[in-house]
Design goal:
Elements (H helix, E strand, L loop, with lengths): L2 H15 L3 H16 L36 H15 L3 E3 L2 E3 L31 H4 L2 H8 L2 H13 L2 H17 L11 H17 L6 H4 L4 H16 L9 H16 L6 H19 L11 H20 L6 H17 L28 H12 L12 H9 L16 E2 L4 E5 L8 E6 L19 E5 L2 E4 L11 H8 L7 E3 L6 E4 L2 E4 L3 E8 L3 E11 L6 E10 L4 E8 L5 E7 L5 E5 L2 E7 L4 E7 L5 E6 L1 E2 L2 E2 L1 E2 L7 E2 L1 E8 L6 E8 L1 H8 L10 H4 L12
Antiparallel strand pairs: 1-2, 3-4, 4-5, 5-6, 6-7, 8-15, 9-10, 11-12, 12-13, 13-14, 14-25, 15-24, 16-17, 17-18, 18-25, 19-24, 20-21, 22-23
């Protein structure tokens, strides 16, 4: 047996070990059905029969009259500029700048130069191996057809014929090259669900193009594709340990399509089933506070956008979803708004792949401003929400909603602590600018038994100053194809926390599979006005032969504009590394255990003094590859060298590691530098809380 085959078998064995008996049974059922469905595969050379429909298809889910006229001029100009680049073939796909989108090869991966299988039976294509498909994310991303929704939006606001014609040409190309169950673009339900949303909105945005009906409802190929996509989702869905954001996308896609394209005898059944599934899985995928249980910040906006589109579509079609779904969706939006910093940036916790449910504007990594703008129409704006400007997407989505939903129990003031998720946000009030923003992580490792999008980041923090990353979360550089980089960006040493015994708190067994999960819990959370304090601990090193715990307390002093961090390791004489990862714009002058940090500010250079634990040996690293250390990813496919400060040494009983970060102006820095460098110990007794005997259960 080859090494590659043995590795794959080992992965399947580990993956099987994370499934319940019920999930195994469902997966066996799926394999049986997938084998039987091989007879349904439609190849490109096959003649496609006209689909069975309940009556002559008509598209009634049009944009309300006058919606395009309400798009702000700046948003209109931006989408047209992006659309013009698309007409020339220029587009960025997950960090790869492409120039071939005028007539794309739907199976080509420009990262590896490989071409994925186009004709093989979809369920026999192993999309998990780069040897077969190349970087499959590159292929799937283009086949979500979201560059075509943007071109359709450009048509809607301009009526320039070139945009609509390019959409029609590429849709016909995709439909011809991707017949039912042929090739890599039919291998997973999340892609099918997102593509259905794109098809609905393309048809909607082309509503008054004279050839729109000929492209869609009077086109047997198009009607057949709509039916195939919904048949697929009705037969297969993510279950058990895989029922994360994937199942939300599948249910949302099915619900949107069955409302907007109710052309088939099964449409009513598909709609009702999808609505029930979406409501049930949204409740499972989120905490009551609205925080997404995957604890991956990028996926909260992705899931909220999916559900918002499905709920608005259902309401517009006269089939409103339940009140519980609206309430949980509103909680997702409110909690997301609460976590944004002063520049409207969300946290960077866990994985992020820039996933979006719908693209009608120039692509932005941060989806929250657009999502909040749309939600203002759907739910109404709370007083503490940050202000946002409408764009094309928020204008059109808002136009589909007849009236704002009345949701009881929304927070009257901006929340800063989300207990179930273990997230606390220590921040200044805005009375003194720039804002100090500090996210603390004391929650679960991730969602479900595989925690697919989690990082080994328990007790890690992010600190921003006026929106600039000072202590930075590393982000997510890649999902597929570069296992060493995938492992680094998820590892403990890549986050602002302590690594013990040279290993991560949680153990990975594949790019989306964790076997051992660190259990974290919050011990104390307090805000007294002038200061806010958070304390938590985790048991990720309980398997070291003796129960080793890491406890951290973080205190923000709003008067002195400083942050104190106190780390304790429960059992002494452990090899430790304490890491602080600086944002890519921050430089550090390290002298012994003291560092002066500088970065460009809105007026001159901003400065901070970082006093580090003297008992550790400190070194600075930037852009290393052997070993990998000192990197920051602004988005999937991007990596930038950044400074990482590493303190290495041994823990001792009852000797905490104390760190102080103090934000300064130039005059304060000069006076501080005249003093003898040292670490302020005065807060240690006030910050460290008594450790209770009770420990969270392992699990």
């Amino acid at each position: 047996m080859s090494g590659a085959s043995s590795s794959r078998l080992g992965w399947y064995a580990r993956r099987l070990g994370r499934m319940s008996a019920g999930e195994v049974a469902w997966r066996v059922r799926d394999k049986v059905v997938q084998t039987a469905w091989s007879m349904r595969q439609v190849r490109r050379e096959d003649s496609v029969r006209p689909p069975t429909v309940a009556g002559p298809p008509q598209f009634m889910a049009v944009l309300p009259e006058g919606a395009a006229a309400r798009v702000p001029e700046a948003a209109r100009a931006a989408v047209l500029a992006t659309a013009d680049r698309l007409l020339a073939g220029e587009w960025e796909v997950l960090g790869m700048v492409r120039t071939d989108l005028a007539a794309p090869d739907w199976f080509f991966d420009p990262v590896t130069g490989r071409r994925a299988p186009a004709d093989g039976y979809a369920f026999r294509v192993n999309h998990r191996t780069e040897d077969t498909t190349g970087n499959v994310k590159q292929i799937w991303e283009v086949s979500r057809l979201q560059h075509l929704t943007l071109l359709a939006a450009a048509w809607a606001v301009s009526h320039e014929e070139a945009y609509a014609r390019r959409v029609a040409d590429q849709l016909r190309s995709w439909w011809q090259e991707n017949t039912f169950l042929s090739g890599v673009n039919w291998t997973t339900g999340i892609e099918v669900g997102i593509r259905l949303i794109s098809l609905v909105w393309i048809r909607r945005l082309l509503g008054d193009w004279p050839q729109a009906a000929d492209l869609f409802e009077r086109n047997d190929v198009a009607v057949g594709q709509v039916r195939w996509h919904q048949q697929y989702l009705a037969a297969f869905r993510s279950r058990g340990s895989s029922a994360n954001n994937h199942v939300i996308a599948e249910a949302a896609g099915q619900l949107v399509a069955s409302c907007a394209f109710p052309w088939f005898r099964e449409s009513k059944t598909w709609r009702r089933t999808a609505a029930r599934l979406l409501g049930r899985e949204l409740a499972r995928n989120t905490f009551p506070s609205g925080i997404d249980r995957e604890l991956a910040s990028g996926y909260q906006s992705f899931v909220a956008e999916l559900v918002l589109l499905a709920a608005v579509e259902s309401e517009a079609a006269g089939h409103p979803v339940g009140a519980d779904l609206w309430q949980r969706l509103c909680a997702m939006v409110d909690s997301g708004a609460a976590l944004l910093d002063a520049t409207l940036r969300p946290p960077r916790q866990g994985d992020g792949d820039e996933g979006r449910a719908l693209l009608l504007d120039a692509p932005e990594t941060n989806r929250w401003p657009s999502l909040l703008s749309a939600s203002e129409t759907v739910f109404g704006r709370l007083d503490w929400w940050p202000p946002t400007a409408p764009d094309v997407a928020s204008t059109f989505i808002g136009a589909m909603q007849a009236a704002a939903k009345e949701i009881p129990g929304r927070p009257a003031a901006r929340p800063w602590h989300f207990p179930g998720a273990g997230i606390a946000l220590l921040r200044t009030t805005g009375e003194r600018d720039p804002e100090i923003w500090c996210r603390c992580d004391g929650g679960p490792h991730g969602f479900l038994s595989i925690a697919a999008h989690a990082h080994a980041d328990a007790l890690s923090i992010e600190v921003r100053y006026g929106g600039v990353d000072v202590f930075a979360d590393p982000g997510t550089y890649c999902y597929h194809g570069e296992p060493a980089w995938r492992s680094y960006f998820r590892s403990t040493i890549a986050h602002n926390t302590i690594e013990i015994a040279g290993r991560s708190q949680s153990s990975e067994a594949g790019p989306f599979l964790w076997l051992r999960h660190a259990n974290a819990r919050e011990v104390g959370v307090l805000d007294i006005g002038d200061a806010a304090e958070w304390t938590a601990e985790h048991d990720g090193y309980r398997s070291l032969g003796q129960p080793v715990w890491h406890r951290r307390c973080v205190r923000l002093d709003r008067v002195t504009r400083s942050i104190d961090i106190v780390d304790e390791v429960s059992v002494g004489s452990q090899d430790v590394r304490l890491a602080f990862h600086l944002g890519p714009n921050v430089t550090a002058d390290l002298l012994g255990s003291c560092a002066v940090l500088r970065w460009p500010g809105p007026i001159g250079s901003a400065t901070a003094r970082l006093e580090l634990p003297r008992t550790l040996r400190w070194s600075a690293h930037r852009g290393q590859v052997e070993p990998i250390l000192g990197w920051y990813s602004s988005g999937l496919g991007h990596r930038t060298p950044s400074v990482t400060l590493i303190g290495q040494g041994t823990s001792e009983p009852a000797q905490p590691f104390i760190t102080r970060l103090e934000f300064l102006d130039i005059s304060n820095l000069v006076s501080k530098d005249k003093e003898q460098p040292g670490v302020s110990r005065s807060l240690a007794s006030a910050v460290v809380l008594e450790v209770p005997d009770a420990r969270p259960e392992a699990g």
